[in-house]
Amino acid sequence: MKNVTSLSVLKNVPKTILSSSYDGLIVKWIQGIGYSSKLRRKENSQIKCLAAAEEEIITSGFDNKLWRVRFLGDQCGDADSIDVGNQPKDISLALLCPELALVAIDSGVVMLRGTKVVSTIKLDFAVTASAIAPDGSEAIIGGQDGKLHIYSVTGDTLTEDAVLEKHRGAVSVIRYSPDVSMFASGDLNREAVVWDCASREVKLKNMLYHTARINCLAWSPDSKMVATGSLDTCIILYEIDKPASSRMTIKGAHLGGVYGLAFTDDHSVVSSGEDACVRVWKVNPQ
């Protein structure tokens, strides 16, 4: 009944999709079947962000707390409450070592291992988005000023390696490609950029086809496509080896805006939005 703010796709066969809404509901869907169940949490708090890997979920609401919980079927175990000292703005799990999580807060980032806060790192810029590499070796942190700061992760500390400038608005989302050769970022000024991880140069530019802020983005499993979702109600899909002008656009995907986006396979995209709906789209590259 509320804005579906986050989506996560698990690597099960068939694919399991988790969607979470502002009112604290987590729904489990099975690709090709549809609705499966509601996950019953013992702590039914509001949800702003959700991240999931295998059978573990981390959620954040509108206070300083994260909730980390394991689930099996449609039952959730006891939730562990983690106070990170500030309202979380973004959560990123290192998918190859999911006990490691990076949480963005206004003044910096918090690193978690399991349910333990191992470091709180203050930064000299206002943080708006973050992502951690699947193996936990690198982190990218986006700022209110539109800059992307790349850090190497050593133990529980960060060392800045580079600062990338291309965005003209606050960074709203950052995601690594599944093969970790690229990452993509989106901003509040409606632009998305694909970057090469090795050279740190722009790989795909002129992704300026939304008319409002970018809320979410997702990569296809083969790393050949990236999709962006926006407040303008549209989803735009780009093929990495083609110019941005050859994009595919799904107009009016969600009334009120697109807030969640994920690929379930190379030719299927699942989206969610302000209209309280979850939709699956078949992608036919041109």
Multimerization status: single chain
What average pLDDT do the residues reach? 93
CA(first)-CA(last) distance = 35 Å
Give the strand tally.
28
Kindly provide the radius of gyration, computed on alpha-carbon positions and rounded to a whole number of angstroms.
17 Å
Shape: globular
How would you explain this protein's 3D organization?
With 286 residues, the protein is mainly β. The protein has a domain at 184-195 and 206-286. The chain is 0% helix and 56% strand. The protein has strands at residues 4-10, 16-21, 26-30, 34-38, 49-53, 56-60, 65-72, 75-76, 80-83, 90-93, 100-105, 108-113, 116-122, 127-132, 138-143, 147-154, 157-165, 171-176, 182-187, 192-196, 202-207, 214-219, 225-230, 235-239, 248-250, 258-265, 268-273, 278-282. Strands 5, 6, 7, 8 and 9 form a 5-stranded antiparallel sheet that branches. Strands 1-2-3-4 form a 4-stranded antiparallel sheet, with no helix packed on it. Strands 10-11-12-13 form a 4-stranded antiparallel sheet, with no helix packed on it. Strand 5 (49-53) and strand 6 (56-60) form a beta hairpin. The chain is globular and about 50 Å long.
